[in-house]
Fold each of these.
Amino acid sequence: MNIEKEVTRKMLIALAIVFILITMNCTSEKVSADDRMFIVKHQTIRYVTAYNAGDERQTDDTPCISADNSNICERLERGEKVCAANFVPLGTHLYVDKVGVCTVTDRMNRRYKNRVDIAMPKGNYKEALTFGRQKLMVRILKEINASK
C-alpha cells in the first residue's frame, strides 16, 4: 500500500512538472536569422497586422522615427525587419510565422496590448493591406551569444 502511494505521489509530481512546462511554453527550439542564433523563450498566438512606415496617415507626426528613436524607414531600406509590439521590451526579437524574425522598435496604441504590427515600406501599401489581420504564432526570442 505504501508503494502504491509513493508511485501515485511521483506520478502526480511528474504530471505537475509537465503541466508547468506546457503552460510556460518552455522549449529548446532554436531559430536562426542573418547569421545570428536565437532560442525560443515563449510562444503564443497573437493578432498580427502590417503598416506602412513613413505614411503619415498610418503613424504619428514623426512617421519614420520609432519609439526606440531609430529611423524605421532607413532600417527597412537596408532590408531589416522591424515591428511594433507592446507586450515585450523594445529591442526584443520576435519570430512571426509568415514573416520571420523582426526586431521590436516601436509601440502601438495602448489598446493593442497583445498585437504585433509589422513595418513595411511606405510604397508597399497594397502589400500591407493584403496582409490584413492574421492570427499567427509569435515566438519571443533570446539571442544566443556566439562567443559562448
Amino acid sequence: MESEATKEKMAERMRRTKQSFDEIRAETQAKARRAVRITNNYAHDHPWRVVGTAAAMAFVIGLLMRKSPRKIIVRKVGDAPVLKVKRVKPRGSAWEAITAFMPIALFAAKTAMAARNKNAEQTADTVALP
C-alpha cells in the first residue's frame, strides 16, 4: 500500500517536472525565434552597419590573438614528457593579409549587392504605384 502510494506520488512528480521542462523549452524556443527574427530584420535593414561591426570585431579578435604567438613543443626525455614554450617569430606577408581579408571583402560585396537589389525593388514598387 505504502509503496504504491509512493510510486503514484513519484509518477505525479515526474509528470509535473516533465511538463514544466516542456513549458520552459517552448518559452526558450519562442524567445530564440523572436531574437533571430529581430536580428535578421536588423541585418537586412542596416547591412553596412552589420558589415562594419563584424569587420571591427574580427579586427579586434585578430589583434588579441596575434599579441603573443607561441608554440608549445612536447618532447619525451626518458620516461617523462617535457613541455617547452617557444616564441614564434611573426611572419606576415602581403599574401597572408590578402587571404585573411578575402572572406570579409566577399561578404561585404554580397551584402552591397543585396542592399542594391532591395533598393531597386523598393524603387520599382514606388514607381509602379500611382
Amino acid sequence: MFPNLKWLDVSSNKIAEMPAFKLPKLEYLDISNNNLEKVNDGWQGHANVKVFKTVQNKFKSLSQFKAMPKLEILYAANNQFTALSGWDGMTALKRLHLRRNKIEKVDEELVPLEALEYINLRANKLAGMDQFERLFKNPAIKDISVLNNPIESNVSSFNVIVAEVLAKNPKIKRFCKQDITESNLLEAVYFKQFKWTKSEEERKRKLAEEKAKEAAEA
C-alpha cells in the first residue's frame, strides 16, 4: 500500500502504538503529539527516512527506532528519555533535538556518529561535565545546547563552562545558542593552563606529604 509515499504526518491523533507500516520510499515521518510509548514488534525501520519527528510522546529509549540508516534529523523533544543511548542504527544523523526530556547521563559506550553536528539537550537533567564530555566523541560535533540543565548551576559563570568546553573541544563553533568568539577561545587557553597548574600543585603537595610520612616512619 502506498509504495511511492514520501511524506507521512500522523501527528496529533490518538495512536496507542507506533505501527509497523512498510513504505519503502518514505523520507519524512511525523508521529508527534500522540502520547506513544512503544513501537510495534514488527517495526523494521525505514531505509530512506531522512526527517523523523516524535515530539510530545512517551518514548524512553532511542533504541526503539532501529534501522534508519539515512536519518539526518530527529526531533524527539518532550519524551521520557533518561539516558542518551541507543542511536546505533542512525549512522547518518546530523541534528538531534532532545529538549525537555529527563536525561541524566550519556552512555559511556555510546557509538560515535560521524555526521552528528548539532545536539539540543536543553531542559534535561545533566549535572556533570563528565557526562557532557562524552558527546565530544562525535568528531563532527560543533553546536551543543545544555541550557537549563543542573550543569549550569555547578559553575561560577557561563564563561567558565564555555572555557571548560572549549578546553576539551576547541572545534565547537556554537554553545548554548551563542557563537564562539576569539575571546572565548583565548579564555579556554588560560583556563586549560590554570587547570594544569592547579593539578601540578596538588600532585606536588601529595608527593611532599608522602615523603614526609615515609621520613617520619623511618
